[in-house]
Specification:
Belongs to the ABC transporter superfamily. Keywords: Amino-acid transport, ATP-binding, Nucleotide-binding, Transport. This protein is of the alpha/beta class. The protein has a single domain, classed as 3-Layer(aba) Sandwich (Rossmann fold), CATH 3.40.50. A 6-stranded mixed sheet has the order 6-7-8-3-9-10, sandwiched between helices. It has a 4-stranded antiparallel sheet with strand order 2-1-4-5, with helices on one face. The relative contact order is 0.20.
Length: 231
């Protein structure tokens, strides 16, 4: 579904990604792990088109997308849940979700019942302002808003950060459902090893903007991965 070959990225004179290659498949979870500041979030922004890679290629469904706009990538089926959620605090839950309609044709602009089935709390609170929700509820809203766009590929940046354990568990179940039942591909940036290990079909460890370690999810070993997660 996604094939990245030898991309570089710089903020001015500061180089963030170095000759980085990776791939992700539909119906699977690809986990990206690493310390803070090694380029994980930048990688997701580059896939989404928020940042532009300086060199290399990004192909989605066998189409080169490096020069395409963020909105066009969204219409192709890539959705992004940023770190920090970035919901609109003054809009209601339902209005926040409807912002995802921008990526859809007019005849598709409906919130599917499945989304409320996955996140029942959002159905109960659909008329509440986004800013009135707890952190965990806002994270569920951010994921739901992305799902409104009917993605083929879902990019999740630290979805468990600052979230209570019961909601972390629920988000894990939702990800499994999306992968197993809907065939969605997920790229998950995560610090929580146990959460990542439970979900990963494959994994990449990023260190100083480069892939330091990769393998199948069932090959993830805590002692090997922790070397790249701790200072």
């Amino acid at each position: 579904m996604l094939e990245i070959n030898n991309i570089d990225f710089s903020y001015g004179s500061s180089k963030i990604l170095f000759d980085l290659s990776m791939s992700a498949n539909s119906g699977s979870v690809t986990c990206i792990l690493g310390r803070n500041g090694v380029g994980k979030s930048t990688l997701l922004k580059t896939i989404m088109g928020i940042e532009s890679n300086n060199s290399g290629t990004i192909a989605f469904d066998n189409n080169e997308i490096s020069n395409l706009s963020t909105s066009y990538r969204a219409r192709m089926g890539i959705a992004y849940v940023p770190q920090g959620r970035e919901i609109f605090p003054l809009l209601t839950v339902e209005e926040n979700m409807k912002t995802g309609f921008a990526a859809l044709s007019r005849n598709q602009r409906v919130i599917k019942d499945e989304i409320y089935d996955l996140f029942p709390v959002l159905n109960e609170m659909k008329n509440r302002r986004g800013g009135d929700l707890s952190g965990g509820q806002q994270q569920q809203l951010a994921i739901a808003r992305a799902l409104v766009t009917r993605p083929k590929l879902l990019l999740l940046d630290e979805p468990t950060e600052g979230i209570q354990p019961s909601i972390i568990k629920h988000i894990g179940k939702v990800i499994k459902h999306l992968v197993q039942n809907d065939g969605i591909g997920v790229i998950l940036v995560e610090h929580n090893f146990d959460f990542a290990k439970d979900l990963a079909s494959s994994y990449y460890i990023i260190n100083r903007g480069r892939v330091a370690l990769t393998g199948n999810g069932n090959q993830m070993k805590k002692e090997e991965v922790y070397k790249y997660l701790t200072l």
